[in-house]
Sequence to fold (152 residues):
Amino acid sequence: MLKYANLALLILFPIAWFAPLMRAGLLPLFGLSEISVITGLQSLWESDAILALLVTFFALFAPYTKTVGLALIHFGLLRRKTLPILQILGKLAMADVFLIALYITLTKGIGIGKIETAWGLYLFTACIVASILIGHFTEKSRRTATIVSKVE
Fold:
């Protein structure tokens, strides 16, 4: 069950990256433009390459690498000893969701323009949380298997 949920994340993460995280507009007279992880990264690469590199790691590489790593563990192609490292990658990806939520809160608090959360933020958050839970239950099953093998 865990391996199939994890494989679903391999499809859901790219969808979440292109899905609208929020809709933002500077003034009520202008329409709202949709911002996704990818469009946000594109504009960030134009203005600050170092920050864009960090955000690219947190938003794209960390969660996807963890998901691929868990899939390799589930199919017996990677040693379970790598699981703690993969768990750290999942936590780093959660930092990205926190930053997005912080930006939305700050923008709403300033009162300039309008910002609305979109369905992509919920999908991206759900993917990260699901990845953390899958990693947790994979770790738990590893401990149980270790205990059982020691008893035998």
Q: What stands out?
A: Helices lie at 2-18, 37-47, 49-74, 83-110, 119-151. The chain has a mean pLDDT of 84. The chain has one domain: 2-151.
